[in-house]
Amino acid sequence: MSEAGLRVGIGHDRHRLVLGRPLILGGVRIDFELGLDGHSDADVLLHALTDALLGALGLGDIGEWFPNTEPRWANADSAIFLEQAIREVRNRGWEIGNLDCTVHAERPKLSTYKTAIAQRIAELLEIGADQVNVKAKTGEKVGPVGRLEAIDADAIVLLVRKTPSGSGLT
Ligand code: MG
Q1: pLDDT for the residue 163
Q2: Tens of pLDDT along 37-83?
Q3: How far is the CA of 46 from the centre of ligand 1 (A)?
Q4: Do residues 81 and 114 touch, judged by C-beta distance below 8 A?
Q5: Strand pairing category for 28-30 and 34-36
Q6: Ligand 1 midpoint to CA 18 (Å)
Q7: Pick from 5, 45, 53: nearest CA to 25
Q8: Ligand 1 mean position to 2 CA, how many Å?
Q9: What is residue 140's three-state secondary structure?
């Protein structure tokens, strides 16, 4: 892998809002009349974060690792995907520097959930709360997000090398 001690990854995801499904964002159950449709639990934020981690490692994307055609991932807790991705990070000698993410949802209002979501992400990744930032935006009533058709999420993560590369200390 790269000689440099830093790597960056980006993730994006979208799931449709539907009736009859729970809304789970960043591993936190959100009280709302609509939920996200998908093969797994459709946690759009954990999917974006998983893609950011895989991307930082140059390991493709979540669809390659956890195909939505596989019965074993039906209604799966997306924490499984994120936990696999962080294992890959650590197995390769990397650690998370920080991560930042944005959830795009017209409703529900997520301001009261942001801290709980950040704490859950930190817990799943076994990192400090100060390494995680969660932002929430509306869709300004336009587009798929604004019309309550979907929730989107973006994530970016910086990886730092856990141990110095090469020989000798600098
Ligand atoms: Mg997804």
Answers
A1: 74
A2: 999 999 999 999 999 999 999 999 999 999 989 999 899 999 999 99
A3: 8
A4: no
A5: unpaired
A6: 15
A7: 45
A8: 28
A9: coil
9-39 in b/e form (b: 16+ CB < 10 A) is: bebbbbbbbeeebebbbbbbebebebbbebe
Cα–Cα dist 69/47, whole Å: 16
For the segment 97-121, the average pLDDT, to the nearest whole number, is 97
Whose tokens are 């797994």? That residue is: 40
Cα(143) to centroid(ligand 1), Å: 19
| Residue 118 Cα to ligand 1 middle (Å) | 19
Work out the burial of residue 95: count CB atoms within 10 Å of its CB; fewer than 13 is exposed, 13-18 middle, 19 or more buried.
Answer: middle
Measured in angstroms, how far is the CA atom of residue 87 from the centroid of ligand 1? 20
Question: Residue 147 has which token pair?
Answer: 């019309």
51 three-class SS:
helix
- Give me ligand 1 centre to Cα 42, in Å: 6
Q: What is the pLDDT of residues 134-158, one digit of tens each?
A: 999 999 999 999 999 999 999 999 9
Q: How buried is residue 77: exposed, middle or buried, by Cβ count under 10 Å (0-12/13-18/19+)?
A: middle
Token representation of residue 6: 């830093």
| CA separation for the pair 119, 127 (Å, rounded) | 9
